[in-house]
Amino acid sequence: MKLKIARLAKQHDKKNFSCGSTLLDEYIKKQAKQDVNRDLSACFVLIDEQLCVKGYYTLSANAIKREEFAEDLIRKLPPSYADIPTILLGRLAIDQTMKGKGWGAILLLDALHRSLSIAESLGSLAIVVEPIDDNAQAFYAKYGFILLPSSGKMFLPMKTIKDLVNMNILPE
Ligand SMILES: CC(C)(COP(=O)(O)OP(=O)(O)OC[C@H]1O[C@@H](n2cnc3c(N)ncnc32)[C@H](O)[C@@H]1OP(=O)(O)O)[C@@H](O)C(=O)NCCC(=O)NCCS
Which atom of ligand 1 approaches the CA of 98 most closely? Predict the structure, then answer.
């Protein structure tokens, strides 16, 4: 099956999307397009040849309170940055029929590349995720995301993503 990643558009068929989380299913079916139209998030979908949505993720501009990060990460940052600029990978989901085949990793890598490219024009210390449960947390931990204990969010420093690209560890 040939799949590709595209920006969410009205011809994409979302009605049968089911990832196992009602919240994430309802989001792509009912809310995602509205959020995009209101410039609250950008949404990218994994689509098959019939334009059926098989996965998606969202990105938004975001900020994290300085004190949420561990001291060693923020020690060298100027104190004037009370809020640290980040990119939020708000949601990431794969249809149940496609799970366990590497598509979740492909969407995550696409989000990391896209975030790195955005960060070249709009400063951003890290990409942040909000795992919905322990499973999601374990998935992100596998890719090096670090837990922020005060909020349950996780982050991956942009520098780490840059290093992975420079070392050719992060595939295109
Ligand atoms: C989490 C999710 C996106 C993973 O997608 P997937 O396509 O099944 O995952 P992949 O097949 O790409 O797996 C890539 C790697 O992550 C690992 N992995 C997948 N789910 C994992 C989990 N819950 N915990 C730990 N590792 C996990 C796989 O074993 C694989 O490792 P490998 O490369 O060493 O074999 C998918 O299960 C999903 O949509 N879950 C429901 C929604 C959700 O939790 N979203 C994330 C937070 S909002």
Answer: 7
Residues of the domain holding 111: 4-166
Specify if 172 maps to a domain: no
pLDDT digits (tens, 9 = 90+) for 121-149: 999 999 999 999 999 999 999 999 999 98
CA of 48 relative to ligand 1 center, distance in Å: 19
Residue to probe by mutation, ligand 1, list 106, 139, 154, most atoms within 8 Å of CB:
139
Task: Report the C-alpha gap between 70 and 6 in whole angstroms.
Answer: 36
In a domain, 130, yes or no: yes
Q: List all residues 6 or more positions away from 124 whose beta carbon is below 8 Å from its beta carbon.
A: 85, 86, 87, 115, 118, 158
pLDDT tens digits, residue range 21-46?
999 999 999 999 999 999 999 999 99
- 19 vs 166, residue with greater confidence: 19
pTM: predicted TM-score of the whole model, two decimal places:
0.95
Domain at 75, CATH number: 3.40.630.30
